[in-house]
C-alpha cells in the first residue's frame, strides 16, 4: 500500500485509464481499472464510494467476461463488505469466489478465498462469542488456507510468486484464532513462527504481513502480562503501518497500545493513545464502527482515572480505620472497627477489579482474609479465599489460583455453604481451562453444576452449564454433548 499522499495522483490516473478503456470498448481493462479505483478508495477508508466502483467491476465481469475474470471482483467486493461488517454479503461473494476458483482449478484463488472466508467467520465470532458455528467455520477455512499455502509454497505455479507471504499470513490467521480462544501460548507459537519465517525469507521490514504479526503478538503478550515484549511489538506494528500509510492498522495499533497502558494502570497514557487512534479513524470517511469503539475506550479510561482517585481516598480511610482499631484493640469497639475495615476492603476490592488493578486486588484480598480470621467468620474467610483465587487467576498464576480456590471450596464445605462451593468449583474449572487441562475443567464445571442444582441456585447453574457447553463445543469438539446441554 502506498502512502496516502500518492493516492490522489493514483486515483486520477486510474480514472483516466478507466475512461479510456470504456471509450474504446475494452471491457476487460474497464473492469480492471474499476477494481483498481475501488481498491484505492478502500485503502483511503472511503468504503461507500469504493463499493460503487467494485460493483461496476463485478457487473462488467459477470456480463461480458469469462468466469475466471470474476475472481478479482469477488475477492475485492467480499473484502470490502467484511470491512463494512456486512457479513451476509461478504460471505455471498467470498463463497462465489471459492466456487469459481474450484471450477477453474485455481489453487491460488482458492487459497485467497478460504483465507477471506476464515477472516469473515472469525469476525462474526468476535462479534458474538456464542456463535460456535462461526468459530468452527473459521477453523475449517483457516486450516484449508494453511494447507493450500503449504502446497503453493512447495510447488509454486509457473510465473507466480513463491507464496511464502501467503504461508506467513496463514500462520498469523491461525495464531489470531488461537489468541481469541485464550490459547495464548499456542497463539504465541504460531505468530512467533510467522516472524521467524519473515526473517528467514528476508521479507521487507515494512511488509504489512509483519505488521499484522507484531499487532497480534502485542495483544498476546499483553494478555500474558509480558509488558516489555508487548510494547516492543505494538510499537513495531504502529511504525510499519505509519510508513506504508495504513491508517486503519495504525489506529488499531494505538488501540493496542492504549489497552497495554490501561492494564498497567497508566490511564492518562491510555487516553492519549486512544486519542491518537481516534484522530486516525476520523481521517477516514467510513470507519464509524472503529470511531465508536475508540470513543468507548476513552470513556472507560477516563472512568478508570476517576475510580483510581476514589481508591486513593478509600485507602486513606482504611489507614485511618487501622489507627482506630489499634487504639480499640481489646475493647468492646474492636469488632465494630474490624467490620468497618471489612466494608472498606470490600469497596477497594470491587473498585480494583473494575479497573483491572489485580496487584492491588491481591493485596486487599489478603487483608480481608486477615480480618475475617480475627472476626472468626468462616463465611467471610471463604469469600476472601475466593477473592484471592480470582486475583491470582487474573495475574495468570494458575497454581496459586487453584490453591486458593480449593481452600475456598474446603471452607465453604465445612460450613455447608452450597453457593460458595458451586462458585469455587466453577472458578477452578476456569483456571484449569486457561491452563490447558480441558477435561479437568469440564469435571469441575460438572461438579459446580451438581452443587448448584442441590442448592437451587439458578444463576450459578446457568454459569456452570454455559461453561460445560463451552468445554464440549470449543475444547473437546463434542458437538452432540454440547447440543444436549443447550
Provide a descriptive summary of the structure in words.
The chain is mainly α. It is elongated. Helix 2 (27-43) runs antiparallel to helix 3 (47-64) and helix 11 (227-244) packs antiparallel against helix 12 (247-263). The chain has helices at 7-24, 27-43, 47-64, 70-83, 87-103, 107-127, 132-154, 164-180, 184-200, 208-223, 227-244, 247-263, 267-282, 288-328, 334-354, 358-375, 378-394, 398-415, 418-434, 438-454, 458-475, 479-485. The chain contains 22 helices and no strands. The longest helix has 41 residues, at 288-328. Helix content is 83%, strand content 0%. The protein starts with 6 loop residues before the first helix and ends with a helix.
Kindly summarize this structure in a few lines.
The chain is an all-alpha fold.
Index terms:
mainly alpha, 486 residues, 22 helices, disordered N terminus
